[in-house]
Amino acid sequence: MPVRRCLILVGLALFGAGCADQREPTAVQAPPAADPHFLRWAGPVPPQFSAVGAFSSPTFNGGFQAYLSSGISLDQYTATFWAVHGQDRSVEINYVDSTGQIISRFLQLANVDPAYVPGRGYLAPGDSVLITVSVDRYTVKVSFEPTGLLFDDPAELQISYGGADGDLNGDGVVDDSDAYIESQLLGIWYREGADAEWTRISASQSLWNKSVTSALAHFSEYAVSW
Questions:
Q1: Any idea where the domains of the chain sit in the sequence?
Q2: Banded pLDDT at 69 (limits 50, 70, 90)
Q3: Is pTM, for the whole model, over 0.85?
Q4: Which long-range contacts (CB under 8 A, 24 or more apart) does 167-172 make?
Q5: Which tops the pLDDT comparison, 72 or 117?
Q6: Exposed, middle or buried, 202 (CB in 10 Å: 0-12/13-18/19+)?
Q7: pLDDT tens-digit readout, 142-200
Q8: Which of 27, 74, 70 is nearest to 46 (CA)?
Q9: DSSP class of residue 111?
Q10: Read out DSSP for 55-106?
Q11: CB of 50 within 8 A of CB of 103?
């Protein structure tokens, strides 16, 4: 009887351990971070743009005084220009109508003075690097290359979302909900690579000209989102 009772107790203990293992929950995987709500361009086709390059210059009547420089083009929604360490250079991309006339500014990247380029290292004064600005065809999103390029002093990025669809939440109507999103939730987000998560960065907003402005310490991908 003692032996039989011992075997029964051992069996019950093993059965209980097996049940406990079955009841123990597996490790909970954190869900991936959701992407922000990207603003989409208004209309059935993407807007048209023109690009100009500029050296650093004073303002004129409160606006941006652009001096055209060579090496600026806008092809397939991509603008390129040469930035030089020790010089503040800028590029401006504008909305244009079907006749090629400028409607308003879409993007201004100012005070571009590159200091460090991945794969090349720190630049000597006078060294140059080709900057590429790519505009997304479907959403108010831009990317800058070389990715990871650093500045000694932050560059300034201003993006206008005036060409975006006014239905910011995508419910089919433009109403007070969209006005609330614009005034309270809208901002600039960035990510460093297609596999990275989007993160909101500090930015100021002008409801008057429908733009957001932020200081950039480096290059990556940026979007006007909420």
A1: 48-225
A2: very low
A3: no
A4: 168/37, 168/39, 168/226, 169/37, 170/37, 170/40
A5: 117
A6: exposed
A7: 999 999 999 999 999 999 999 999 999 999 999 999 999 999 999 999 998 888 999 99
A8: 74
A9: E
A10: E---EETTEE-----TT-EEETTEEEEEEETTS-EEEEEEEE-TTS-EEEEE
A11: no
At residue 221's C-alpha, the angle toward residues 216 and 222, to 5°, is 65
Cα 91 to Cα 54: distance, rounded to the nearest angstrom: 6
Average pLDDT score over the chain: 79
The long-range contacts involving 165-168, CB below 8 angstroms and separated by at least 24 positions, are 165/39, 165/40, 165/41, 165/42, 165/43, 166/42, 168/37, 168/39, 168/226
pLDDT at 72 over 60: no
219 by Cβ neighbours in 10 Å (0-12 / 13-18 / 19+) ranks as buried
Burial grade of 213 (CB within 10 A; 0-12, 13-18, 19 or more): middle
C-alpha triplet 200, 119, 127: angle, nearest 5°: 95
Collapsed DSSP state (helix, strand, coil) of residue 124: coil
Class of domain 48-225: mainly beta
Q: Which residues of 96-114 are buried (b: 16+ CB within 10 A; e: fewer)?
A: beeeeeeeebbbbbbbbbb
